[in-house]
Amino acid sequence: MQNCYFPKCWKAAVVIPIPKPNSDLSLPQNYRRISLLSCVSKVFESVLLKRLNQFLDNINIIISEQFGFRKNLSANHQLVRVTELIHDGFEKSESTGALFLDVAKAFDKIWHYGLLLKLMRLGVSAQFIKILRSFLTSRNFQVRVNHIISSPRPILSGCAEGSSISPMLFNIYVNDIPKANSCHLAIFADDRAILTQHAHPYATITQLQHNISKLQLWLVDWKIEVNSNKCACLLFIKKSLVPSHPNLQIFGQPVPRVYQYKYLGIILDPELSFNRQISDALAKAKYTSQKLASLVARWSTLPIKHKLLLYKAIIRPAMMYWSQVWGATSTTNIRRFQIFQNKQVMHVVNAPWYVRRKVIHDDLKIDPISDFIKKSSSKFFNKIPQIRNELLQRPTYDPAIPSSRKRPRTAMNVIFDNFPTVKRRRIHTTPTNLGI
């Protein structure tokens, strides 16, 4: 560190391409890259990262809208914030317009000298900047496929993939993203969403376009490329008929208008009903259950406690993904999950059809779906006051007050009948009914 030098042998990466599922493997973009770096290099990077984090915490410079690579923050927290903003618009009878930006090769295209300039502006010491300059420059990589390795190729831009310090350097590089007063930013690593609200949908789109005009200048200045055809615009509005509005444009290219969008793993729809998300989660859980059929099916000889463990550890998490976000969905959706769980616990104990589901749940000591959502939501939201982020501290509503609006934090107080009594229609036994 005293010599401000990062050894060249630590800057060599071996890249292993992993094919994406259901894609044309003849195209290079259909592979995910896994970079293998020197273990000694990662130890040194962790020392640099610790010092950089201490400096950033002291000056408190990273914007609150950035939830990626931050202590105690996750994609779940950003999703809760975004959905609460949208519900707040519904409460005020306002529509919310969201622009989801797709940055082309975010980590690979970072301009080295631009990053070093931003570090200088933050007041990072000259010695530390020299070390980072040595870390960023003169890097090379080799591709390995089936024990065959290519010749070295230089890396001219971007941060090293697989490096400990690269995520925080990326946060610094995009930290000065422009934001209008009428817009909200939601950033998680390289996933960016810009939201704005207005009573009239046309004005909502106009405000978004105004913010895009400022954003374009910033993108050009710092050599950040955007895939306009992969960006998306979604209008959240509590109306059955969504009014027409002009398309957004970025760098002269129209931004596709969509009616659902997968953001940070959750499918958002215009009314935040989460119906598509629930359907996909159920399909994933059923697929997982089928894959484990030889272990969890009725005929399986596996002990009951092991069957139950497989359900709790593998099958249930597949459908409860980010339940803190959509947990206050309609009772119909919750019942769909409960019906699936009822079938699973019946298979676990190999119970006949006439055994009450509540009895099985009590014997297995497994929570009904609504109780599971309440517990996980309470555990999640009770930790939020300990997080140093003012955007999460105070919701715009009191979850304890009953309301027709089902927002994320109200999932802790929802009353749900898990096992309703089914009233069966009584059939009179006449000779006709008996087939006599």
From TrEMBL:
Pfam families: RVT_1 (PF00078). The keyword Membrane does not apply. GO terms for molecular function: RNA-directed DNA polymerase activity. InterPro entries: DNA/RNA_pol_sf (IPR043502), RdDP_mobile_element (IPR052560), RT_dom (IPR000477). Keywords: Nucleotidyltransferase, RNA-directed DNA polymerase, Transferase. The keyword Transferase applies. Transmembrane segments: none annotated. Residues 1-268 form the Reverse transcriptase domain. This is RNA-directed DNA polymerase from mobile element jockey.
